[in-house]
């Protein structure tokens, strides 16, 4: 959205030729777009790293939950076997 606004204001920048050389204005515009894109890429990388960290945490928690459920099932099975032995 911000990039689009800068591109749309290009005509206003070019109209300021009387104050600055046209090439200088174009260079400023390109530099601003470059820095904004660079900042966006950096923020995208940070977002991706945070997303990866959340995924890894979720994965390890799910893995631990499954192990605990397996242990719980083993204990239930052992309890049922003990009850059957008592009744026999």
Question: Would you mind describing this structure in some detail?
Answer:
By secondary structure, the chain is mainly α. The protein has one domain. It is 90% helix and 0% strand. The protein contains three helices and no strands. The protein is rod-shaped and about 100 Å long. The N and C termini lie far apart (76 Å). Keywords: Coiled coil.
Structural descriptors:
single chain, 88 residues, mainly alpha, coiled coil
Number of domains: 1
Low-confidence stretches: none
Number of strands: 0
Which of globular, elongated, flat, extended, rod-shaped describes the shape? rod-shaped
What average pLDDT do the residues reach?
78
**Residues in helix, %:** over 70%
Rg result: 31 Å
Order of helices and strands: HHH
What is the first-to-last residue Cα distance? Answer: 76 Å
Helix count equals 3
> What portion of residues belong to β-strands?
under 5%
Structural class: mainly alpha
- Biggest sheet statistics: none
Briefly say what this structure is:
Residues 56-83 form a coiled coil. By secondary structure, the protein is mainly α.
Provide the fold topology.
Elements: H1 2-8, H2 10-15, H3 22-87
